[in-house]
Design a protein that fits this description.
With 198 residues, the chain is an all-alpha fold. It is built from 10 helices and no strands. Helix 5 packs across helix 6 and helix 5 runs parallel beside helix 8.
């Protein structure tokens, strides 16, 4: 990577962070519905157009952490023993993914209540979140396939991961108290995995 590319990437990351920070403060103060994209852009010190270079909608800022969580979850595959099977791989990926919801430094939990409200108010997952979750699942399946190249096991692997991700998403939304969220997600993932054991 050239020095110029490195500077450009750092500036892009700083701008994205400023947008996330401004949106987080505004969402917590006014709620998602009471916050406009212009408010977020002004709070971040960027143009409205710049906001859209980073996020397709204000709701997407609520899920800004997802891609980073996927990258960190994929790294969990590196710690598996050489003789691990695909089911162990899915469990490792999901355990790492869920652990990030318990990590205050991971940045997912601050807006968790607002995410749950958004899903409840829209009576389902917003389209932008569905796309992000599909991308996350595709990336995780790709990493798992690379680690477990036996193609005959791929349909089951994808079904196992899908069951876990669906359970995790439903549990995150349904948890009544924020402090119960991570435990509810873990329990849902454990139940979803049970049918794929062995």
């Amino acid at each position: 990577m050239s020095k110029e590319t490195g500077i450009r990437e750092r500036k892009r990351a700083e701008t994205r962070r400023a947008i996330v920070d401004a949106a987080t403060a505004l969402f917590l103060d006014r709620g998602v519905a009471g916050t406009s994209i212009d408010d977020i852009a002004a709070g971040a010190g960027v143009a409205r157009r710049t906001f859209f270079l980073h996020f397709p909608s204000k709701e997407d800022v609520l899920f800004h952490y997802l891609e980073g969580h996927v990258r960190r979850a994929v790294q969990a595959l590196d710690g598996l023993p050489a003789d691990a099977d695909a089911a162990q791989g899915v469990r490792a990926v999901m355990a790492a993914f869920v652990d990030l919801f318990d990590d205050p430094g991971a940045g997912a939990d601050e807006l968790a209540d607002l995410r749950a409200e958004l899903v409840t108010a829209s009576r389902g997952l917003p389209a932008s979140l569905v796309l992000r979750l599909q991308r996350a699942q595709t990336d995780l399946v790709g990493a798992l396939r690379a680690r477990f190249p036996d193609r005959t096991g791929w349909p089951l692997l994808a079904a196992h991961l899908g069951a876990c991700m669906g359970g995790a998403t439903a549990a995150a939304v349904a948890a009544e108290r924020p402090e119960d969220r991570a435990a509810a997600i873990r329990a849902a993932v454990d139940r979803a995995s049970a049918g794929f054991a062995g």
